[in-house]
Amino acid sequence: MRTMKGEVLLNIPARRAWEMYRDNNIVSHINPGMISSSEYLQGDGGPGSLRVFRMGPELNGFEKESREKIEKVEEGRSVTYHAVGGELRKMYDPYRVTLSFYPLPGSEQERCIAEWKAEFEPLSPAVPLPEKARMAALAFLKSFDKVGV
């Protein structure tokens, strides 16, 4: 299985970044140009839950909707999901992402590192690495700074 990672430094505590990502109402207002809405179609955000993200105009040429089934949750720290619908699911199997929020040592109450890690297998040799997905995810995570504390 192949992997790809990326991270951004956020000027908010890890706990706040976690809460923002897990709350559909908040995550839909962080950067509506990238993610216009989010909802749990099944479950409450725990393992087995099904969540859908509808993309905003900045990502419409890339992906319109992403359906994700949550596999693992480390409360306050990370969530792992796999794509069950959307364009990425048509290109990779599996396509699994872990989003993690780590307090920045020495600045735990003010800053954190948001990490995106994908595990994937392209469905054919012609399928490119998911660099666009990585860049979009990191840009979206960086938008958390604009919403703040």
Strand residues, percent: 35-45%
- What is the first-to-last residue Cα distance? 37 Å
Cα-atom Rg, whole angstroms? 15 Å
Average pLDDT figure:
93
Give the count of structural domains: 1
Identify the strand order in the major beta sheet.
1-7-6-5-4-3-2
Number of strands: 7
Overall body shape:
globular
CATH fold assignment: Alpha-D-Glucose-1,6-Bisphosphate, Chain A, domain 4
- Counting helices, strands and paired strands, the structural category is alpha+beta
Highest CATH level, the class: Alpha Beta
Q: Give, in order, the helices and strands.
A: EHHEEEEHEEHH
Largest sheet: 7 strands, antiparallel
Overall helicity: 10-25%
Q: What is the overall number of helices? A: 5
CATH architecture: 2-Layer Sandwich
So, the CATH homologous superfamily? Answer: START domain
> Unreliable runs, pLDDT <50, ≥5 residues?
none
GO biological process, one term: defense response
Protein name: Bet v I/Major latex protein domain-containing protein
InterPro entries: Bet_v_I/MLP, Plant_def-hormone_signal, START-like_dom_sf
GO molecular function: abscisic acid binding; protein phosphatase inhibitor activity; signaling receptor activity
Structure description:
The protein is of the alpha+beta class and 149 residues long. The protein has a single domain, classed as Alpha-D-Glucose-1,6-Bisphosphate, Chain A, domain 4. It has five helices and seven strands; from the N terminus they run βααββββαββαα. Strands 1-7-6-5-4-3-2 form a seven-stranded antiparallel beta sheet. The longest helix has 12 residues, at 131-142. The protein is globular and about 45 Å long.
